[in-house]
Design brief:
alpha/beta, Rossmann fold, 7-stranded mixed beta sheet, 6 helices, binds 5-O-phosphono-beta-D-ribofuranosylamine
Length: 197
């Protein structure tokens, strides 16, 4: 069965993208990472992708007049590669309702909290400030509602005495690297089943 053509969108370090690239090397994995796209030319993850033989592209939002033209460029790039599934991995642009509707069921994100708790930014700091005892990460479908789409997988970590935002982020990140490939596999298998019927 043909593998689902997947683009990973990043803005920075790209450690989740790396986990997806590694997983997709496993024989029989249902998704193929066709391209890594960054909206920032200086994203550190771009070098890793290139070194690992994955095509890259930079679509710098700053050179576009607004969200509409930026997303039009993104859409054209995705279509040119025949992309069927998008994995957002630390991609720091909010996508419009028109874009997310177009990719409904075919666009995923990883978020560093146990959604629906702690949508948005600075999740680790907010968890610590609240004195919460559990935290984690979520892979979810992307919809028009920020961090609000259906949940695919979650993983939990304890918040430990003495944790800082950095120690907590590191504990969560390890789980992110575990569940994002698993979620990608689940969704890609679903899409494979759809295209074969
Ligand atoms: C991760 O914590 C992810 O959950 C969040 O942004 C961070 C990206 O890290 N959306 P990386 O670029 O994948 O290393």
């Amino acid at each position: 069965m043909s593998r689902i053509r997947t683009a990973v969108l990043i803005s920075g370090r790209g450690s989740n993208m790396m986990a997806l690239v590694e997983a997709a090397r496993t024989p029989g994995f249902p998704a193929k990472i066709v391209r890594v796209i960054s909206n920032r030319p200086d994203a550190r993850g771009l070098a890793f992708a290139a070194e690992n033989g994955i095509a890259t592209a930079v679509i710098d939002h700053k050179i576009y007049s607004g969200r509409h033209t930026f997303e039009a460029a993104l859409q054209s790039a995705l279509e040119a590669d025949g992309i069927e599934l998008i994995a957002l991995a630390g991609f720091m642009r909010v996508l419009s309702p028109a874009f997310t509707a177009r990719w409904q069921g075919r666009i995923l994100n990883i978020h560093p909290s146990l959604l629906p708790a702690y949508k948005g930014l600075h999740t680790h700091e907010r968890v610590l400030a609240d004195g919460a005892t559990r935290h984690g990460c979520t892979v979810h479908y992307v919809t028009a509602e920020l961090d609000g789409g259906a949940i695919i997988l979650q993983a939990e970590v304890p918040v430990l005495a003495g944790d800082t935002a950095d120690t907590l982020a590191a504990r969560v990140l390890k789980k992110e690297h575990r569940i994002y490939p698993q979620a990608l596999e689940i969704v890609a298998r679903k899409l494979q089943a759809k295209t074969s019927t």
